[in-house]
Design goal:
By secondary structure, the chain is mostly helical. Helices cover about 75% and strands about 0% of the residues. It starts with a helix and ends with a helix.
């Protein structure tokens, strides 16, 4: 597994680099925002706070399960710790936007640094209840990471600096690019501290703390405070539910998201116990996963470009199909007594590549069919079944016999992915007659769906 992990990671990174270089050559000349020094300074101030926070978050990915295993907890106990994190993210995710708007975006970013630092520190404890509290704090921190930073930036960009709104996408696109690089690098850094220096699985969590402190200090020193409009939580959720039930496209997207992403959450729990017994370097495997996800994202942007002009719903269908195929593979490669770690690793890489295709496609479709004013409420309803499915999967499906239970979980996940595939098929049928679900055709080229006569 050692050689396979390093080889796969290197090959995926080389492919990503080649695609990125090709994309750079085909991009148009630099736009006006590149020549605006005030905008560039503003961007750098945002990245100085946001990127260390992302790095700290990614560093904790490779060795979380291994740490609990190192503390001699049983797999069922570890599953409950993961459930604590998922449940926490559900509860805090529902109220995080309102909390951030009322408390202040800058204060919320500083609070993130504080709570996530405490979450990392409690990993030094071997007490089960203390670790469970740490998982709850981790859920709160994750909710703040994915709400406070972006909200602060958008407000400052539009309200304080009055930059053009179309430049917001430029900043977030560059942040996504650096996020991919940081995610890949975090696996290597975690492996270096945990394995090469022999500091054990708790080391990456300790390395995260200085990055979180750095992020908080930069926010305190360089950012101004801003607040959002106070919104009634019940009204937000009520409007979101009305939107969800009144538009079958939104309902289909919510169904696909709940089914697909709950499977991904269970995969996050299972990959370590499947590969670790076979000597896989967990940090390098994690880097390979992130490289595969980055490759999927690059392939998505290439596929929807003017050269190929595939539709996001096509790529969403492909992503769900790949996940179903990968989970089907895993039901065989994890068969007790006949395990094939190489096949399992390949299946996991395909799942991550599918994620790289899935998230931009889902993001495009969500922006098209969910009105901006209802988006927060709709997303709250999307998250609820997603996390409930993941929690129930970990609590109910996991057998006391590790090997049999793992294979059973992959089998059930394959069935869930098949349901997601059926929902995608219905959405695909709707997209043939719904221009909102499609990218516009390039100038001078007719839309292929318009060229097909009705029978």
């Amino acid at each position: 597994m050692l050689l396979a992990s390093y080889s796969a990671c290197a090959l995926l990174l080389a492919t990503c680099l080649a695609l990125e270089l090709a994309a750079c050559r085909s991009r148009p000349p630099a736009a006006l925002h590149h020549a605006n020094p005030a905008f560039r300074r503003f961007q750098r101030g945002y990245y100085r706070v946001y990127l260390p926070a992302l790095a700290a978050d990614w560093l904790q990915g490779p060795y979380l399960y291994k740490l609990y295993q190192h503390y001699h907890f049983l797999e069922g106990q570890i599953a409950i710790l993961y459930v604590c994190g998922f449940a926490s993210s559900v509860l805090f995710g529902l109220v995080s936007s309102s909390l951030v708007d009322r408390l202040g975006r800058k204060k919320s970013c500083v609070l993130f640094s504080l709570t996530y630092s405490i979450c990392c520190l409690v990993k030094l404890s071997r007490d089960y209840l203390v670790l469970a509290v740490g998982r709850v704090l981790g859920g709160l921190s994750t909710a703040l990471l994915f709400s406070a930073f972006e909200a602060w930036y958008v407000h400052e960009h539009v309200e304080r600096y009055d930059f053009p709104t179309e430049w917001i996408a430029v900043t977030f696109s560059r942040a996504a690019f650096w996020n991919n690089i940081i995610a890949v690098g975090a696996g290597g850094v975690a492996d270096f501290f945990a394995e090469w220096l022999g500091l054990g699985p708790v080391a990456p969590f300790m390395v995260s703390i200085p990055l979180l402190v750095l992020s908080g200090v930069f926010a305190v020193k360089n950012w101004d405070e801003n607040y959002g409009k106070k919104r009634a939580f019940s009204k937000t959720c009520g409007d979101g539910l009305k939107c969800l039930l009144s538009d079958r496209r939104v309902l289909l997207l919510g169904t696909i998201q709940a089914l697909f992403e709950s499977v991904i959450y269970i995969f996050i729990f299972l990959w370590t116990p499947v590969l670790d017994p076979h000597g896989a370097p967990l940090g390098i495997v994690f880097s390979g996963f992130m490289a595969a996800s980055t490759l999927g994202s690059s392939l998505y942007h290439l596929a929807v470009s003017k050269r190929y002009h595939l539709q996001p719903v096509h790529l969403l269908s492909l992503a769900v199909l790949l996940v179903f195929f990968s989970l089907f593979m895993l039901t065989f490669s994890t068969n007790p007594g006949q395990e094939s770690p190489a096949e399992s690793f390949l299946a996991f890489l395909l799942i991550e590549l599918s994620c790289g295709l899935y998230f931009p496609a889902m993001g495009f479709l969500r922006r098209k069919v969910v009105p901006e004013k209802d988006r927060l409420g709709v997303m709250n309803w999307f998250r609820l079944p997603l996390n409930l499915l993941a929690c129930l999967g970990l609590l109910v499906l996991h057998d006391s016999d590790r090997q049999t239970g793992t294979r059973s979980m992959f089998g059930v996940c394959a069935a869930v992915a098949l349901l997601a595939l059926l929902a995608v098929g219905r959405l695909f049928a709707l997209s043939r007659h719904d221009a909102e679900l499609r990218l516009p055709a390039p100038p001078g080229q007719a839309d292929a769906t318009d060229a097909v006569p009705e029978l």
